[in-house]
Each structure stands twice: as C-alpha cells, then as structure tokens.
Amino acid sequence: MSGSKRVLFAHKSEEEFARLLDFYQVRWEYEPRTFVLEAADDGSPVESFTPDFYLPDHDLYLELTTRRGNLSRRKLRKIEKLMQAYPSIRARLIDPAQFDAIMLGRENDWRQPEDETP
What we know:
118 residues, alpha+beta, 4 helices
C-alpha cells in the first residue's frame, strides 16, 4: 500500500481513488511504468502510455477517466494498443460512470473530514 499523502497526483480524482485503495488496504503504485506503444525506426518512442495505477497484488494496471467523450475513447484506444503490444499485461479503463459508482459507494467511510465541502 502506498500512502496517498506522499504522492503528487496529476488529478484530484487520482488522489481520491488512492485514498479509497488505502482504505480497503489495496496495495498500489502510481504511474510506475511507461509503455512504448509505437516506436520510430530509430527506436525512439512515437506514442507511449503511462497507466495511472498498478495494483501489484492483482497484477493489474488501471487508467482512470472522469471525463466523458473523446478523452475516454482515446484512453480506451491506448489500453487496447497496450494489450496488443504487451499481451501479458492486464489493464483496465475505469470510465466516468464506473468511477462515480466506485467513489460514491462508500464515500462516508473513506473520505477524510477535510475533504468535505459545505
């Protein structure tokens, strides 16, 4: 388990998700690896992908998206490319509806008091 207070997250939603993982004592790593999805002839990366979370006990990478539309579709396409390029890698997209359901399911149990806004 990583402490969400020691990590600088790119988005507030990632920090909230990390707190939920901590609450349920799920070990996680934040952006631990970047995968090259496409390389130029000289080997330099043309397209790469860094999933938001890795759950080592589940050998699973997770990518969160809280925005609907094109961003969600682009992230899903990258996950599909990742699994084609690295067949042994397990990865999942948590889309906006799934994220909302996960985060609202037990919100009062895991949120810290300073997270609550009037």
